[in-house]
Design goal:
With 193 residues, the protein is of the alpha/beta class. It has one domain (4-192): 3-Layer(aba) Sandwich (Rossmann fold). It is built from four helices and ten strands, in the order βαβββαβββββααβ. It has a seven-stranded mixed beta sheet with strand order 3-2-1-4-5-10-6, sandwiched between helices. It is globular and about 45 Å long.
Amino acid sequence: MSRILLDIGAGDSSFVNQFKNLNPGLCQTFLIGEPHFKTVWAGAVWWRQMYQVRASYENFGVSDGSLDLVTLNAFHPLNSLGDIVGEVVRCLRVGGLFISAHPVGLHPKVESPSLIQCIKPSTFMKRSGWLVPSFEATLDVEGYGNIRYPASPTITERLLILTYPALRKHARMGSYIYRNINTVPDVAVWQRV
């Protein structure tokens, strides 16, 4: 089956590259969505291709029921998510997954009978890394098997700071707002019914 993933609010392809490498064969097409990207996705499906496409939290720019996975990683709490849940419901195929990961466990409030939480917030585990450790969560979802979900760059930085507190003074500005919070990053999953 040719599955399509949209990483909304991605910024760049780093998360999608990791996801693609950890889960060969899970998805065929990868959309990296940001409002400032110029390309509108025309529905092209090519094996393991990535497309940077114009997409916002309230308008993914895709047709109804065309996506199999929507990932949301480390959204900034001062940015409005608008009606992202409504857009997820519109765009996901039945059985599709909405996966949210956040540096301090903030997830969209999902109140829709069309989305059932199938994995409660789960934490990231350290996996071996040559110079710098990397992190992932293992998600066992019916119909998908084990999904290895990599920590986004922002979540990885947060996990490194929590693991090695001396790194706090070197944190990027994006992590500054979480500096005095000790909550660990987690990931939650909802399935479209």
